[in-house]
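anyone seen this seq b4? input:
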Amino acid sequence: MAQDDTLNETRIIELIQTYGADLEAWPEGLSDAAQMYLDNPTPAIARAMAEETELDGLLSTMPDIEVPDHLYSAILDAAPKSQGANQRSGVPWSLAGWRTRFAACASALAMGLTIGLGTAAASAPSDDPFSDSSYLGFDPTAFSEGLEEVSE
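predicted toks r here
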């Protein structure tokens, strides 16, 4: 039987260290593919299996730890809560958040109008139709000089 091309010796050793020596604890697809390597193991795979078999034996002698209900509840109560919804009303955003967003938009609008109107009031009125075009990056003198050259 040919060995699976997606697995190599390094990956098999990582899987042994992750899931242990008992293939029953491995995910189904991985245990089937690894079995081909374990039928004829390399020295490194055999060493990893021996180490994990010993560790699995030590862990199996450990007693199961029963967590008291009050400790379990205290840990869950101390865990961070989801920030997605207002837990009192069930609304996905709070009223204070809505007010803050409205105030930010109103402030931006007020600043834009203040700056825009202030700039317009500060500029002196002119009879030159191109006076405001310099704000747009257009140089009317260069354009008129070019016309004079063409007309000559």
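DSSP finds six helices and no strands in the chain. Residues 10 and 40 are 15 Å apart (CA to CA). kinda curious what u guys think
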